[in-house]
Write a structure and sequence with these properties.
about 160 residues, mainly alpha, AhpD-like
């Protein structure tokens, strides 16, 4: 990749493994899980969750994909940029989004081995059981995608909006 001003960037490193080609049934199952997980949830909220989990997991491929999709769907650059510091940038997000981001952080980073009761209680109060179940499914699914992306070092920078929708 090089800019029009002749800036030379580091060479692109190829992916370690195109896992989806070697495990097509797993890939199809993941796509089905992806579709089912986000059913009846606000698409903007879903993309914010996917970007945030991907930041925490350092999945460059998923960050690229979900940022591109969010921008194409009308998300503002400021809200995407502030996601990495959402706790200090609370005024960029709605109350529901803040609860969802808090839950995303807690489910994604299980350093204590559990999701704190108070985080889960806030999410349950804001979303209700059915919607909370879907929210948890989105968080679990993006975490699974992130693990494939990070383990296989999938290459960011080639995704176009809606490519997998």
């Amino acid at each position: 990749m090089s800019a029009s001003d002749d800036t030379v960037y580091a060479p692109e490193t190829p992916a370690r493994l195109d896992w989806y080609r070697h495990a097509p049934e797993v890939y199809k199952a993941m796509l089905a899980l992806e579709k089912a997980s986000k059913k009846d949830l606000d698409p903007s909220l879903v993309e914010l969750i996917k970007i945030r989990a991907s930041q925490l997991n350092k999945c460059a491929y998923c960050l690229d994909m979900h940022t591109v999709d969010a921008l194409a769907d009308g998300e503002t650059p400021a809200r995407i940029v502030q996601l990495s510091a959402w706790e200090e940038s609370r005024h960029f997000y709605t109350a529901r989004e803040l609860v969802a981001l808090e839950l995303t952080d807690a489910v994604t980073v299980l350093t204590d081995g559990f999701v704190p009761d108070e985080v889960f209680a806030r999410a349950a109060k804001e979303f209700g059981e059915a919607e909370l179940s879907q929210l948890l499914a989105v968080i679990a699914t993006i975490n699974a995608w992130n693990r494939f992306g990070v383990a296989c070092r999938l290459v960011p920078g080639h995704y176009t909006a809606g490519m997998y929708k």
